[in-house]
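Batch manifest, entry 17 of 40.
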Amino acid sequence: MDAWYEKYKALKLDGYPIGLAEEDSEPYFCTPVDAEIIGWDNGIHYCFLPKFGEMVFCVNPETRCDQFVYPIAENFRDFLRLILAVGCTNPLQQIVWWGRKQFEDFIRNPEEAAYAASPEVTAVLRAIGEHLDLTPMEDPFGYVKGLQTDFPYERIPFSNEYYDTLGLERPDGTEPEENGFAFEAAVFTFPSEP
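Output type: structure tokens
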């Protein structure tokens, strides 16, 4: 486990305002095998994958791109620095399908700016910055986009449920089990007219 994640957890902060809520939610069809979930933001969740060391990933079941899972940061320290730069996880998880202008427009949106400046958010960000001695990432968009470019997405380990849900062939060559349901044909009859 990432040492910076342990330091963050030791602060006992409520991560909900910055998109790192602790939930007992079940993983989704697209949650990778062996994912260690570290926070939730309205169904989107963030995790470590043992195969990729300390890298932080976003799992987005309603993605607007070709990937349900994509890297966000090389490690949890950088992930926190990204959050310090933009206020919460929301803009970070959308970089994968945005250009720089969309990202900057979103950050400058009055509603987003007001949320990032809210007392709940600023209290968590201040605690992270002060107690962990971290500073905001200088170019969050460039950092995340650079990490996602040429990433080997095919190496992310998914369960058979992922392939079955998307109607894809399972890499292990097995076939989905029959679900055991059988339906009889329904016949509808209408009363004849008098």
